[in-house]
Structures are given as structure tokens and as C-alpha cells.
Amino acid sequence: MNLRRSAKAKAMIPTASMADIAFLLIIFFMVTTVHEVDRTSVNLPRSVVHEEAEKGAAIVVLHADKDGQLVYKFSDGKAISRDVPGPNDIYLEVSRITYRDKDKQFLLKADGNLKFALIDELMDQLRKAGANKLLLLTQPKGKAT
């Protein structure tokens, strides 16, 4: 019996669905990416107590720049934080939010090297503006290395 040799099929990679796969991966990474509203680098004070903040909490930042000038920043929890001239302006921003939502949580991200009197003044402005839920951001107290 004489068998004919069949023609070899050329090797090829099917690329018809590659665009679909790329599109699905892009959507996946867009959905799973966490949006960070404040990227200000601050030397946080250390604390033993740990409490989770609510998602979408407003953020108030107080730190000193390279020249030693105080810098105030504010974010409503949705938009990226922006510079604010001083504590009176923080009062106005917080008042706008607490007028709409009395139970809104506020995070105070203050530099641990600042005098507490400055932080206390800012906390007073937050309380006067109606911020009932206030958390101070800290880093966990770890073992000394």
C-alpha cells in the first residue's frame, strides 16, 4: 500500500482575539487600580492604637516645606488634595462638607516634627467647622532596630 504524504500545515498563531484580550486587560487594570487622593510625604508620629479609616474620608494635611513654611492641603476624599492658604480656609472647606454630610470622617495627616500647638489649632478649626469624626494618621510603633 502506497500512502501519500500530506502537505504540512504552516504553523501560525491565531491573532484574531488578541485585541479583545488586550481590551479586557486594560479594563481590568483600570477597575482594580486604587486612586490615591493625597501623596504628600509626611513624617507621621508613631502610635500603638490602630483604627481603620472610612473609604472616601476627607483629608487635611499639615506639614512644613523645605524653607520651614507651613503648608496646608485639603481633599474632600474624591479629588486630589490641593494647597489651601491657612487654617481659616480649612475651616471653610470643612464647613462646606459638614453642611451636606454631618457624619463625614476627616483624616488629619500632620508632620510629627511640628509643635503640637499648631496641630491643636488646626483641630480646633476642624471641630468648629463641625467635624465630629476626626482621625489622626500615624504609623505603627514597631520594634526598635
Q: Got a strand count? A: 7
Oligomer: single chain
Q: Which strand order spans the largest sheet, edge to edge or round the barrel?
A: 4-3-2-5-6
Write down the overall mean pLDDT: 88
Radius of gyration: 26 Å
Secondary-structure element series: HEEEEHEHEE
**Total number of helical segments?**
3
Proportion of strand residues: 15-25%
Low-confidence stretches: none
SS class? alpha/beta
Shape: elongated
User: Which sheet architecture does the biggest sheet show?
Assistant: 5 strands, mixed
Q: Give the helix proportion (percent range).
A: 25-40%
Euclidean distance between termini CA atoms: 83 Å
Tell me what you see in this structure.
This protein has 145 residues and is α/β, with parallel strands linked by helices. The chain is 29% helix and 21% strand. The chain has three helices and seven strands, in the order H-E-E-E-E-H-E-H-E-E. The protein has helices spanning 18-32, 87-100, 116-128; strands spanning 46-47, 58-64, 70-75, 82-84, 105-110, 133-136, 139-140. The strands form two sheets. A five-stranded mixed beta sheet has the order 4-3-2-5-6, with helices on one face. Strands 1-7 form a two-stranded parallel ribbon. Helix 2 (87-100) runs parallel beside helix 3 (116-128). The radius of gyration is 26 Å and the shape is elongated. It starts with 17 loop residues before the first helix and ends in a 5-residue tail after the last strand.
